[in-house]
Every structure is written in C-alpha cells, then in structure tokens.
Hints:
This protein is an alpha/beta fold. It has one domain (2-237): Ribonuclease Z/Hydroxyacylglutathione hydrolase-like (Metallo-beta-lactamase, Chain A). It has 8 helices and 14 strands. It has helices spanning 34-43, 57-60, 63-70, 146-157, 172-182, 187-201, 211-217, 226-237, and strands spanning 2-8, 12-18, 24-28, 46-51, 73-77, 87-91, 96-99, 102-108, 117-121, 126-130, 133-134, 137-138, 164-167, 209-210. The strands form 3 sheets. The protein has a 6-stranded mixed beta sheet, covered by helices on one side. Strands 7-8-9-10-13-14 form a 6-stranded mixed beta sheet. Strand 3 (24-28), helix 1 (34-43) and strand 4 (46-51) form a beta-alpha-beta unit. Helix 4 (146-157) packs across helix 8 and helix 5 packs antiparallel against helix 6. Bound molecules: zinc ion (ZN) and fe (iii) ion (FE). Zinc ion binds at residues 54, 56, 59, 112, 131.
Amino acid sequence: MKIEIIKCLEDNFSYLLIDEVTKSAIVVDPSESKPIIDKIESLNLKLKFIMNTHHHYDHVGGNKELKKLYNAKVIGFDEDKHRIPEIDICLKNNEIWKDGIFEAKVFHIPGHTLGHICFYFFRENVLFSGDTLFSLGCGRVFEGTHEQMFNSLQLLKNLPSKTEIYCGHEYTLKNSDFCLKYDSENSALISKIQLIKNQLAKGQPTIPTTLEEELKTNIFLRSKNVEKFSKLRDLKDNF
Length: 239
Ligand code: ZN
Ligand code: FE
C-alpha cells in the first residue's frame, strides 16, 4: 500500500492509499475534490472508497463530487451516519474492514466530535488519526468531554510504537510553540522542532510522525492523568 499526501484547503491533509498492482485507491478525509481529482488522474487510479474520520466539512467536503465522479463508496462511523454526507458503508467500533490489500481496524475515539473514529491499517502499521492526535498536539474538544479525549489518546498510546501517524492538519510547527513553552527542557522536543523546521523549509510536510516520537515530544500524549490533560487543553485553547 502506497500513501500519497495531498495538501488541501489552508492546512488540511487528505491521503490517497494506493494498491499499485490494481491501481485501486482509497481517499481518507477529502477536504475538497479538486486536488484529489488531479492526483487520481495524474496517477491513473481508480477511486473505490472514501473514508471519513469525522463529519467536519474540512474532512468530508469532497465526498459528494468524488462519489459521483468515480462511483466510490463512502465509509464512516455507524453512530455518525446521519451527518457523514453520502455514507454507504457504516462501521462499528473495533470492526475490521477489508477490501483487496486494504485492511483496517476502526476505533471510536470521541472528544473532538462524539462520532470521531480513526483507521488503523495494522498490516502496515499506519494510523489515520483525523483531528484527534496531531503531531505535537491533539484536537480541540468540541463535542465530547476532556475525559473522553484523554481516554481516546490513551487508546492510541497502546498501538505499537513504530506506528506511523497521518493526521488531519499541518499544525506541527504551531503546536511546537505550545509544547516548548510548557516542556522547555525536553531535548527530544528540541531536536524534533529542528527537524520540523527543516522539512517545512524544503516545502515538505511534517507528516507522517510516529507514535514513538510523539510519546517523547507531544505534551498532550505525555499527560499522566485527565486533570493535567484538561489543564493543558484549556491553556492551549487560549494560547
Ligand atoms: Zn475536525
Ligand atoms: Fe479538521
């Protein structure tokens, strides 16, 4: 499975997952259709599925047009089917979904929204974390409670440390300012920030990150309990 990173809107990431033998593809969180269509056409792919981590417009904005153009099936969370546009395949928590070489486990990780899920491609050890876990950050708690978000992050912490994380936004540099302010002695953080700056200077995305790196540097993932996590999340909201 090959992964193409596609920048969308201001700072969103959509991802194309490609079976290089059959040329069939999945798009994760198409913010908008145009850049996705351009990439599909340039690589001569057949778009079969659209996967959504949650219902926000910057993650589902391309659903309708892509579905119509390619006859692709939209995959989302069963409990959120009323607000995932054009949904066809409703998945439940802990369900394993499979098609050809693509095989992913779904985890319900509420907090940012109540129906937020992530897709864990366990054979490749790749996670699409949407707006729950970012590099050096986590999503804002819009619908759930801080406790739900904390628990969702605990679940992700238990994945294998080599897991590659593909998140919904390029927020890494902005997030690093906050991490540094409250964790200024962290040498792993300081070296990661240098790496991020180099990547961005070359016009490259800072994604994917790995769980191992985030466990060393991401202040939200490192919070020991829900009280500490909540305090940091509130500080970040006003940062
Ligand atoms: Zn969102
Ligand atoms: Fe988003």
